[in-house]
Amino acid sequence: MIQDLFRLDGKVALVTGGTRGIGLGIVEALAEAGAHVIVSSKVPKPEVIARLKAAGHTIDYLQADMQDPAAPAKLVADATAITGRLDILVNNAGVAQHGDTHSFTEANYRRLMDINVDAVFRACQAALVPMRKQQSGVILNIGSISGYISNIPQPQAAYNASKAAVHMLTKSIASDYAGEGIRANAIAPGYIDTDMTAGGFANPEWSPVWRGMTPMPKVGTPEDIGAAALYLCSAASSYVTGEVLVIDGGYTIR
Ligand code: NDP
Description:
The chain is an alpha/beta fold. The protein has one domain (2-253): NAD(P)-binding Rossmann-like Domain (Rossmann fold), CATH 3.40.50.720. It has helices at residues 21-32, 46-54, 71-83, 106-134, 157-177, 195-201, 207-212, 222-233, and strands spanning 12-15, 36-41, 58-63, 88-91, 137-142, 182-189, 244-247. The chain has a seven-stranded parallel sheet with strand order 3-2-1-4-5-6-7, sandwiched between helices. NADPH dihydro-nicotinamide-adenine-dinucleotide phosphate binds at residues 16-17, 19-23, 41-43, 64-67, 92-96, 115, 142, 144, 189, 191-192, 194-197. Residues 16-17, 19-23, 41-43, 64-67, 92-96, 115, 142, 144, 189, 191-192, 194-197 line the site of NADPH dihydro-nicotinamide-adenine-dinucleotide phosphate (NDP).
């Protein structure tokens, strides 16, 4: 049956930044498909974890500040220790910061690259250990349309560069580990309704530009990304690797 390809029963998934926004949308999609999901975030949100468990999902929680260079390896090791395997890693945790390049602070640049790029690389590195032992696994990284286009009206060169790095890291891992049964893909969302974009959608100068440049007359939701994540993390996409799936209401068409 075609729907069986989208089931994740018996699979163990680790999702960073999984207690709100896009990450929570991904957690809900994977859990509904039957996965045992290990949710991580910097700020613990026991009420979200309790709600997921009350819905009947198999959920564990691990706190981790991904800006700490030691955190990704420890997180992956702790997650793998729970059931002795790791089938799916979703690198979703990320931060956005706009600002002119000529005055962008070193601290802001470092934070962006630490969380959006370095932590993703380190988590992939760590996840490849159990996945290589299993000779199977799926990595899903959350990139952005900003890895392809330069957003307007807000300048955000550092963020854009961080997401382009995520895309290329994904493709390279896909190429290097395809022979070991490991797939790596990314999703490049357009503007999605989360805490990250709330300020922009409330900004009378930004919001009309963002909406005007998106052909579809709606703002994307975490559920839109969750559905695509389920496809890319399940056997439904078993011949897909190195793909960066753009989900942007058509923004990048124009
Ligand atoms: P939110 O700001 O709503 O959530 C960000 C998530 O990242 C939170 O779960 C947060 O955890 C986690 N996070 C941030 N810093 C750290 C850290 N130091 N350690 C651990 N976790 C951290 O953002 P979105 O849900 O919108 O974004 C999710 C991903 O999607 C990001 O990678 C973002 O760049 C990307 N994206 C978003 C788009 C959008 O329009 N919203 C568009 C394109 C890409 P905590 O709750 O603990 O702070």
